[in-house]
Amino acid sequence: MLSIDTAQRRARLATRHRLAPSARSTDPVDIARSMVVLHATDPATVFLSVGARGIDLTPAEVEKALYDDRALIRMLAMRRTMFVAPTELLPILQASTCDALAHKQRRTYGRYIELAGAVDGDISAWLAEVEAETHAALLTRGAATGVQLSKDVPRLRTQIDTAPGKSYSKPTSITTWVLVVLGAEGRIVRGRPNGSWTSSQYTWAPVETWLPQGFSPMPATEARVELVRQWLHTFGPAPITDLKWWTGWTLGDVRKALAELDTVDVDLDGTPGILLADDLDPVATPEPWAALLPALDPTPMGWQSREWFLGPHAPALFDTNGNIGPSIWADGRIVGGWAQRPDGEVVIRLLEDVGTDTEKLIDAEIDRTTTWFGDVRAIPRFRTPLQRELTG
Q1: 164 CB contacts (<8 Å, ≥6 apart)?
Q2: Residue among 107, 269, 112, 106 at smallest CA distance from 187
Q3: pLDDT in tens, 270-288
Q4: pLDDT class for 169, splitting at 50, 70, 90?
Q5: In b/e form, how buried is each residue of 276-306, taking b as 16+ CB within 10 angstroms?
Q6: Is the pTM of this model over 0.90?
Q7: Alpha carbons 318 and 37: distance in angstroms, whole number
Q8: SS3 state at 66
Q9: pLDDT tens-digit profile of 113-148?
Q10: How open is the CA angle 367-370-375, to the nearest 5 degrees?
Q11: Dihedral, 57, 58, 60, 64 alpha carbons, nearest 10
Q12: Which of 303, 309, 367, 307 is nearest to 338 (CA)?
C-alpha cells in the first residue's frame, strides 16, 4: 500500500488550496473551483477566503463574479450548509444534494405546519400552492426580499410555533421556509445583499432571469461521482469518513460514487485513506508560506479528521458547535488565531513558536487582510475562545 506522510499532505494543501504565494490566483472563480466550493454560512468568509488566496484582488471583484458576471452562485447544499460555487457546478450540486435537501426540508416544514394545525386539508398541496404563488410573484417583481414577497403572497405570513409551550418558543412566519425550499429546488437564487459584502440580507431572483441560459439536469448518481472526484482532487488523500462527513450523504451513497472512480487505498500515517489513481505523483514542497484564513474557511472545513494540520489547538480555535474561528496557517499547519477588533485592527495570537522568518510572513498577511477589510467591520456569527480573548 502506498504511504503518504503528513509533509506530502501539507504540500498538496498549500498548492491545491492556493495558499502558497506561487499558487495564488488573480481570478475569484478560479479560486472557488480550486476549493470545489467556498463556505458561505458567514457571508464575510467567502470574500476573506478569496482574499487569502488571491493576487491583487479586491472585494469588488468578488462581487462582480457573484452578481454581475454570475460566474459564482450562492447555494444551500452539503450538510444543509450555505456555499458559494462556480455556476457550472450548479447541476452537479443540484442533482447530487439539493434535490434531496429540498424534499427533506419540505417534509420537515410540513410536519411543523401540521402540528400547529394552521392548515385545513392537504398540507403538501397547500405548500405547493404557496410556493407557486411566491415564484410567480418573484417573476413579476424580478427581484425581491422576503418581506416584499410576503406582501404579495399573504399566506407567506402564516405564523407557526415550532416549540409550543417551551420557554424559547417564538412563532415565525413561513416566508423563509418557502424561500429555502424554492432555493434548494433551484427555482430561485440568492442575489445581491442589502448592504456590504458582510451582509446576509439577500434579495431573491427567479432562476429564469438570474441564469437565463438555464442548466441541464443530470442523474443523481452521475452527479455524485463527479462531486466526489473533485473533492478527492482538492482534499485527497483522505479517509472515506472525511468524504462522508463533507458530503453529508449516507455511507452507501459515498461508496457507490467511489466504485465508479479509479481510486487506490493509501496509508496516512497509520490511517486508511483513498486517492485518485491518476493522482499518485508527489507534489513538490512549495516555498515557505503563511495565511490568515477566516472562520469556517473551506480548507479546515474540508476534513473531519484534522489532527495532521490542527495539532493541539482545537480548544482555542473551535466553538462548542464545532465551528472553527479565524486561523493562522504556516507551511500547512495551524499555528494560531486572529480577529478584527471594532476599530479595524487585525490582531493575532500565535499558539506555538514559528521562528522569525515565519513571523515576517504572518506580518505580511496581517497587512494584506487589513487592506482587504478597508473600512468594513465584520461581525462574527459565532465566537471562539481565542476570538473572545483577542477582541476583549
Answers
A1: 116
A2: 106
A3: 999 999 999 999 999 999 9
A4: confident
A5: beeeeeeeeebeebbbbbbbbbbbbbbbeeb
A6: yes
A7: 21
A8: helix
A9: 998 888 888 999 999 999 999 999 999 999 999 999
A10: 150
A11: 20
A12: 367
